[in-house]
Input
Amino acid sequence: MVKILIVDDNESFRKNLISLIDGCGDFIVIEAENVQEGVDKIRQTKPDIVMSEIMMSSHNGLEIFEKTQNHSYGAIVMTNEQSFKDVVKAMRIGISDYLIKPIDQKQLYDALQRAFLHHQQLLSYEETLRKKEKLEKHFQTPLFQTKDLLVEKMLAYIHENYMHKIILNDLTQELHYSQTLLNKRFKKVTSMTFCDYLNRYRITKAIEMMKEGQRYIYDIAAGCGFHEYKYFSVVFKKYTHYSLKEFMRQIEI
Output
């Protein structure tokens, strides 16, 4: 059920507003009589919508929103007089709606609908950001600090040639060691097989290209050493758990 916090130092007005809200639907209503109590209840109860009087006896009600900008909710301000200065400030800090007292139930209903929609949009945006940050953190370019000169040479070879076709046999000729030795040494230091690291590095580079604005999948695939689109698509989903289209939608937000 949607939670609404009312912040107003006039108890009689709060009770009347609760009656109006009851006529708009089923809501859980929480009350606060001053700015500090309002801030505390936002932090404690995490309401979906916050309604605050601007002109209270001790503080400007806009302070509530300024002090809780790290919380997500739809915000509605209320006042007896419309102040251009307050309207501008309210818009700047992301207030969803502005109601002039006395409040009409139809206007209240519409304002609550808009505030709830705004809250849902905020939550959706924050969830998208969390997913995006998680993906970016997970697919940062793998870096290893190692004193193993042989593995360092293998890593350098991948970083310089990932856009070309690479097989482990290329390094046996370059470094003059057997494939078995190279693979064991590489896995011991990186905890990945040569092929796994190569694919992860390529996917990391593909993501960098997408973030830089490249949108042609075939060009991204070719630029990262995948010369077959279908194989690139399979490998991409294996490591990111997203299809190419799904991932590109995420980073476009």
Q: What stands out?
A: The longest strand covers residues 2-7. The mean pLDDT is 85. Residues 105-138 form the longest helix (34 residues).
